[in-house]
Write a structure and sequence with these properties.
single chain, mainly alpha, elongated, CLAMP
């Protein structure tokens, strides 16, 4: 191992799940990160050391003994590469003297049995993995590349990003809705105006017919006035309702415009002034009284007489 495993690191690795523990062990061993699918040899190596560590922890080894067991497994694996099984057994026998002194009799027997049931049993497989490089399989596919035709060059120059194009489409849809609502309002007002004119003509016709049939009295005149007032009031109510509805639709469409997600590179969205414009007050000229006109004419006549005298 490039770096000796500390007891703190062993405790940290043992407290994690297998995948997280393997990544933590990789870091404490000083290895570089790798892709398990592309570097299967390193993944098997790391898996072997992690299993050794967890076995020692589960069997109740002290943390110092856990670190020694992992270090022993690493040395046994590295020094057995390319050797036969009898040579590896001899190597294990030589290193076992120091290992037995550290692990003590009980833990040494448990760990030796583990090594023989795992590493030694699959020794030929370990040798194959660590002595044969994996053949890299790189697919070779012939692909044809078609460039866009020259007719698309101008269109591509004026093309927009997808986000901007989608924003413009949504914005244009709301504006089209505004135009449709405006046309509907104009048609509705024209219809109301035509109905008001028709109602007015109907009232005039009724008054004329009544007057021709019999002279108008006080009660009949009052009834006609009430009908006229009722018609005028109904027309004004409908007009006010229409104005309120139009303002509500206009505000809703403006809110819909501002609520469309706007791409950051387009800057701030346009803001709309929802407050009605304050009408400008035109000054009214007061008519001059006859006295003021008389004073002005007297003053002008006096000035003309004094000028003639001089």
């Amino acid at each position: 191992m490039a770096t000796t495993l500390s007891t703190t690191a062993a405790q940290h690795v043992a407290s994690l799940s297998k995948e997280q523990g393997k990544q933590c062990l990789l870091k404490h061993l000083g290895w570089q990160p790798f892709n398990p699918e592309l570097a299967m040899r390193q993944d098997i190596h790391l898996d072997f050391l992690h299993d050794c560590l967890m076995f020692a922890v589960e069997k109740g080894f002290s943390w110092d003994q856990v670190c020694v067991a992992v270090e022993f497994s690493e040395q046994l694996l590295q020094e057995s590469i390319g050797k036969s099984l009898p040579d590896t057994l001899e190597l294990f026998k030589q290193k076992s003297e120091d290992l037995g002194f550290v692990l003590a009799s009980r833990n040494y027997k448990v760990y030796a049995e583990y090594v023989f049931l795992t590493f030694m049993r699959h020794y030929r497989l370990f040798q194959f993995v660590f002595t044969h490089d994996r053949e890299s399989e790189v697919p070779n596919v012939q692909l044809e590349i078609h460039t866009p035709p020259s007719s698309c060059s101008e269109a591509l120059k004026t093309a927009k990003e997808k986000r901007i194009w989608e924003y413009n489409q949504k914005y244009e849809a709301v504006e089209q809705k505004e135009r449709d609502c405006a046309e509907q309002r104009v048609a509705k007002r024209e219809k109301q105006a035509a109905e008001a004119i028709q109602q007015k003509e109907q009232i005039i016709k009724t008054v004329t017919d009544t007057q021709q049939q019999q002279p108008l009295n006080k009660e009949k005149v009052g009834e006609i006035i009430r009908e006229v007032l009722q018609a005028h009031t109904s027309a004004m109510v409908e007009k006010i309702k229409g104005n309120v509805t139009d303002m509500k639709e206009s505000l809703e469409l403006k809110l819909e415009k501002t609520s469309i997600p706007r791409p950051p590179n387009m800057g701030q969205p346009p803001r709309f002034n929802t407050k009605p414009k304050t009408p400008t007050v035109t000054p009214v000229r007061k008519p001059k009284s006859p006295k003021e006109d008389g004073k002005k004419s007297t003053g002008s006549s006096r000035s003309r007489s004094s000028a003639s005298k001089s």
